[in-house]
Amino acid sequence: MLLAAAGLYVLRAKGAWTAELEPYALRPDDLQTVQAGARIYAQHCAACHGVRGEGQPNWREHGPNGLLPAPPHDESGHTWHHPDAQLFAITKHGLAQLIRQPGYRTDMPRYDGVLSDTEIVAVLSWIKAQWPQETRVRHDQLNDQYRKSLER
Questions:
Q1: Using 50, 70 and 90 to split pLDDT, how confident is the model at 142?
Q2: Number of structural domains, the chain?
């Protein structure tokens, strides 16, 4: 059965969700993926989101250009409030496409055509690997809830 998930198509095998079936699933325990993600993050993300994912100051307040500054990706931000599929979709296609508001403006570039899907997963995996265990567990629970909502 094919299900639409955050603009992605996900193959669902009856009750069996795996990384192979979820190509956007984060892999924070895969050392090779996380190391690659650290390099890619440093090159493409750190300038805005900070070397350690701390984000820009006053990230909840619109700046002089009317846009929100880059949020933190650490546990103080909201990154972990989104399931893997949404994080992948935001990074690859942009928030405007995910929320279906083409006029939404942001400084966050789309990485479709810049980074491969594997590289996007690596970056997001590195980000998740930086979170405290409690935050990672909560994010895993969010992913489980998201998957169950797709099965309905």
A1: very high
A2: 1
CA–CA dist 152, 67 (Å, integer) = 36
The pLDDT of residue 140: 96
Q: What is the CATH number of the domain that holds 132?
A: 1.10.760.10
Q: Decide: residue 93, CB within 10 A, 0-12 exposed, 13-18 middle, 19+ buried.
A: middle
pLDDT digits (tens, 9 = 90+) for 49-99: 999 999 999 999 999 999 999 999 999 998 999 999 999 999 999 888 888
CB-CB contact of 88 with 124 (8 Å): yes
Bridge-based pairing of strands 2-5 and 8-11 is: antiparallel
For the record, the structure tokens of 136 come out as 């990672």
